[in-house]
Amino acid sequence: MTDMLSRNDTSSAVLIGCHRFTDLEDLLAVQKNLVGLSEALTDPMIWGLEKDRLKVLDQPCSGDDVLDAVAKAADAAHDTLVVYYSGHGLIDPSTGELYMALPDSRIRNVLVQRALRYDYLRRIVSSSGARKKVMLLDCCFSGRALGAMASADHSAAANVTMVDGTCVITSASATALSLAVPGEKYTAFTGVLLDILQQGVPGAGTYLTMETVFDAARSRLAARSLPLPQQRNRNTAGRICIARNRASAPSSSPGEQAAPPPRDRKGSLETSHVRIYAASGDILCSGLLVSDGIVGTCMHALGTAFDVQITDDEVSSAPIELDFPLLPGVPRSRARVVSWRHDGSDVALLRIEAPVAGSVPAPPTKSRRVRETKFRALGFPRLSDDGIWVSGELRAKPGAELAQAKTAPQSPRMDQGFIGSPIWDETYGGVAGIVMVTQHDGSLAFVLPTSSLSEELNRLARKTRRAERAAWAEQARSGRRERSKARAAQLLSEAASLCSNISAPDTQMQQLTSIIATAVSVDTDVARQLCAVLEQHSTLLQDRLSQVRALSRVADHFAPADGRQAALIAERAEALAREGHGLRMQKRHRLALYAVASGFSRIDPRRAESILTELGPAQNDDDISAVSAVLRSIAAIDPDRAERGTRSLPRSYRLRAEQVLSAVAIAVARQQPDRAQELANSISDPNTRMYALMRISASLALSDPDRAERLALGLADQGFQSSLLTTLADSLASRDPYRAERIAHAIPHAALRARALDSVFEKMIRHDPQRAEHMARTFLDPDKRAQALHALVSRLASTDADRAEAIARSFGDDEDIAEALLRVVDRLRETAPDAAARIALSMPASEPGPRARALALTAQELVWHSPDHARQLFQEAEQSARVTPHVMKRHLAYSACAAGLAETDPERARQITQKIKGRGDRALAWCDMVTALAGTAPALQAELLAAALRKARKLTYWEHKTVLRHTAARLIHTPLSRRKVRAFAEQITEQAMGLLPSPYGDDGLQRLADQLVEVDRHSAAELALEVLRTDGKQHSGDRYGIHSLDALMILALTKPWHLTDLAPPRQGPSNTDERDKFWRDLIKAMTEKARILTTDADTEDPADALPLLSDG
To answer: Residue 41's Cα: distance from chain center in Å?
Structure first.
């Protein structure tokens, strides 16, 4: 098997030769070697290397000149690097090392002077990023280079060069002289090499591998009894091809590149030429259909002659009319500008609103090196609506710089009416570019190459795909928020309906009140509906005091969200309290009115106060507790009224009064700090005083930090002082992190000091990363220090990538360095993919796993606008993954590569996943690919999910359960049809049931059922029921088992009628208590679940946050 021909646009070559010497014998044939080899390598029929990628050094002045030229070529080469030297080979008398002679080289005693040490050249070649490297040495003793390349036992530096893809061919052995035959044009070795390149090798196939070249050269030199060449290849380097075989049957055009076979296209100039109209209806310019529905033209034509203003920041969305003049009977279409460029390329892309029948993009010219080829073009000069055809010759390189289209003498001339017109290459076929500007006499036009249009098309594809990904992500987030809110509301409604199963009416009311308190923050409409349920339940209560208390608590919960609703509920509670029925005892009547006052305290403090005045002085402990609670609530709204109310409390209940004063001091702290401090200092109870001072200090932290700090430092008790300083540091951290840091260092208590410094560091990262870095490096705990620096790297990566990279490289351990740089690459790859690629390539070689992941992430971003670079990075990533010794890290690396290729090359991505040995890890890698597809390719997503489920059947319990959960998570945000999603959910449920009963407990399967609620409620209910049945059997027939609340909540949402059968039976008092506990626990769990769903609705999607294989 041979490799494809090395790419001529991403390869480089350096030819070095010295033919005249001051102290050595001249070798005049060497100069001809350079001329002959440069012509051969740039010949399109042999390799076609672009001339700007070939450097010829004839008679270099110094070794530095040679090394600089080779280093520059090594940096530019991505595919293949070729280095050739012809001249004298010199041996150091002391070390036996090979030197390459330069014009002024000489040997004096035991020294080789003014020559180039071969080892220096070897190092530069070995460090090149090119995938393939070829070194050709035509000099005496050149075989010693092979020893240097293989001396791993003697030199660590030499071992570095032993990398894949290096081929070295020398003209002689380590001890033999090379030969220039007198009277011949070239030296012996180079002459044979040129003969092979120019004439080919019969029977050797389409391309000449380096092995084929070497074998042919050796046999031809041996036949002439000339010195025999030597060769050393590293792994597959012998299959490198830098030449077509001229002796084989012609199978390709001279401009063929190492690329996939061309598709069968039916596009032509007739199906792709577009005529664009101005707003006035006049013909404006032409364009080229470069992709389905996308037209490329010149930006300046749209910007200067059309009522469409294109700026650096935005483009008008005004519609533009166009048609296809060479497609008969096709009406005009509308299009809009979707992409443009101001960097000199003068490219604009338009998207056609509806498909045009018969339109097909034309292929680009088949040759990337056009020399005086024929062309034709159609333009629309003024008063020539039917168009005028011109013809002539194309010159220069249409794939690189601007080409020139010169009209033939007998052809019409090209004026401004040809701007944007496609140039059809008559010699090779295909479009060479579009007319960008014409010369004043119309005989010459400059052509914008199709490569520029392709680059802009790739840029548009990348921008569009990014926008699609962002829209999909936002849709997923908003969908999740809506689903979470709806699910929380349903949980609360179902929980309220379950309250009737509790035997005690008072307990029912307590549960309903708790549910409503949560519902107010979830959905006020649901909360209002539940209020009606509460009132219905309250009529069942014989105890009117319980009714009043329940309604008053609900009014207090509604106060912050809906004051009007809160007032209505409080009025209803007051009406019940004053009816008197069931409240004949004076004590119970007073407690009911106190409850009403509490309900009004945050809605209408004046009314609450009037009720307290009506009730008169407190008569017992219950009264005192109730009055104190009402006054504390009033303090937040009307602190003056609350302070006056403390006078009604007996002196014997001073602690209750001080609790009210504490609330008053807290309420007035910002507006009246002196009063607040005075009130707090008047409190005798130390705990109450400390609580008040802490809250006052927190309130003053932003408005008067000096006073807040003085309050804290004035405390004698170190414990109280530490708590107060901690509160102050936390409050100041966001506003003034420097002061917060100083305060944190002053905290006496070590644990509180550490906590405060952590809080300050989190805020300092955003405010002053440099100071945050200093703080992180002062942490004594190495784990904490590393964690802080990692957080800092993640923060800086988007704003100061250079500093983030420097911090990452400051870690002492290669593993930490690699993980930190991976964070930098992940943040940088979207905004600066080239910089991300540089960082990824420079990651520690001892950590190939993270390096492969970084390369794959970067390549995924580059694939749209720089496919060649992306392809190279993917190859580097695969190579790094292949040599990763740690199994899990290797699997992570392969998974990252597969996910990166999932959208653009799914077949290759699947091939990569086959290299993952663990079947569970391979299934998770397929799930990663589904995530990477992000709302596209539903058929491929379905295929991958089906494969993961098939593979899951062969896994152990834990792996099987993990794959099922990951598969279910991917179904939540998938473009699959509802029917397909339901089918997958049923498969997941069927497999999950097969895992029961489990000796390890069924928490994971309950969570799986919870995921399926989002996808298919019937499947979720079936799995939850099976989990509960199995749980009951495992616990001696106890159907409630170990309180499988997750499964019970799923049934409450999907099939609530099953809950009655699962609850303990009603027989006997003990069973009643157990049954009530069952319902209370379930209702409490449902209420808490609703609260969590609401709190987490705006955070990261759990499906996205699941630990993918690429996240460990």
So the answer is: 42
